[in-house]
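Q: Okay, next protein. This is Interleukin-22 receptor subunit alpha-2 from Neotoma lepida. I've checked the sequence twice, so it should be correct. Can you predict the 3D structure?
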Amino acid sequence: MSNASVLPATLETQAAHGSLKPQKVQFQSRNFHNILRWQPGSSLTSNGSVYFVQYKMYGQRQWKNKTDCWGTTALFCDLTNETSNLYEPYYGRVMTAWAGRYSAWSRTPRFTPWWETKLDPPAVTAVQVNASLLVFLRAPELPYRNQHGKNTSMENYYDLVYRVFIISNSLEKEQKAYEGTQRTVQIEGLTPRSSYCIVAEIYQPMLGRKSPR
């Protein structure tokens, strides 16, 4: 559907129905997967409503229709590809149609992917080398490939600090084994014939934020 497509004339002229208006319209972003989510209006206690989604970059005058979410019955819309300029701010907005009535638009707060996306923990692989463990860490990747067709790591966009903790299963005691920028960590001095659990997280110093473990 063309971005120039318009809603039926009644959508523009009919009085707004506040109780139909979508609630809590906001972006939820993880690893630059940018999903617009909302909740039904306060008067919608049954099925049968559909939703229309538009988006735009901050500063643009014209809203664009998200074709895949134009008349959707879902309560979310994937705008990852439409918000792929990670340093630019965006808006999304949603309108409800139900039983021949239409709500006003509900707009998100300003959303900038680089500032607001949350990172998953690093992928962790551990290999035993005699009485030590060699731990390999890998940052999450972007949801799309670069111009050369390759996956792109979050390390290309943030300064990342890795934190590795080791837990002795016998003592149930946690100890920090490493904190730094290296993705390969050797943990030495382990007790033979003992079990250990390796836990890792990512810290983003500039944002003061850390991933789940």
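A: Here is a summary of the prediction. The domain at 9-115 is CATH 2.60.40.10 (Immunoglobulin-like). The chain is about 5% helix and 45% strand.
Q: Noted. On to the next one.
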